[in-house]
Design the sequence.
């Protein structure tokens, strides 16, 4: 009888040795499979991150700050620097633009156009964090754009692939496409006053 009690005591002692800090297999879910690890890849149907800048026919928005054309240059540049802290920043000017002397501030794919220290236009190329207010991005094909908007090609323009369309807010957004036919790719979009030599 004494041996029986001693054996039972040893079994109880061994059972109590499992520490809480030791690795334990994950508990099965009600369906009988282990729960997914916390680092599981996100679903492709999840919403895209909020763009850093949204351009529209009458101006540009940075986060919740909407800056229409005629906004002071310093205000617009400060907003752009806040949302593009890691983008290459360049300043340029052209004294021979058809609309008069202009200065340009570029933040990666976005170029902001200024006259008399006021925002007058923008030019957007393909790049992360950029989209128009109606959801258009450079990189789509002309056929895809035509599926969303009424696109007018400008065959008399001296600039290859120039087109324009009416945005939902009633303003006009222009652009350029590279290639031929419906597979032509939109390379840039613009609005307001720009410095193009036609």
Sequence:
């Amino acid at each position: 009888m004494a041996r029986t009690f001693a054996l039972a005591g040893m079994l109880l002692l061994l059972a109590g040795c499992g520490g809480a800090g030791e690795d334990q297999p994950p508990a099965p879910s009600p369906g009988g499979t282990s729960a997914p690890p916390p680092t599981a890849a996100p679903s492709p149907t999840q919403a895209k991150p909020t763009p850093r800048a949204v351009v529209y026919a009458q101006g540009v928005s940075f986060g919740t700050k909407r800056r229409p054309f005629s906004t002071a240059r310093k205000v617009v540049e400060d907003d752009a620097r806040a949302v593009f802290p890691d983008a290459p920043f360049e300043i340029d000017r052209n004294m021979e633009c058809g609309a008069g002397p202009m200065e340009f501030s570029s933040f990666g794919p976005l170029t902001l156009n200024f006259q008399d220290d006021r925002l007058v236009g923008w030019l957007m190329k393909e790049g992360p964090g950029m989209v128009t207010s109606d959801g258009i991005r450079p990189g789509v094909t002309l056929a895809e754009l035509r599926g969303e908007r009424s696109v007018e090609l400008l065959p008399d323009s001296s600039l290859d692939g120039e087109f324009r369309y009416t945005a939902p807010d009633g303003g006009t957004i222009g652009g350029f496409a590279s290639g031929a036919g419906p597979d032509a790719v939109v390379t840039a979009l613009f609005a307001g006053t720009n410095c193009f030599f036609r």
Remarks:
- The two ends are 107 Å apart (CA to CA).
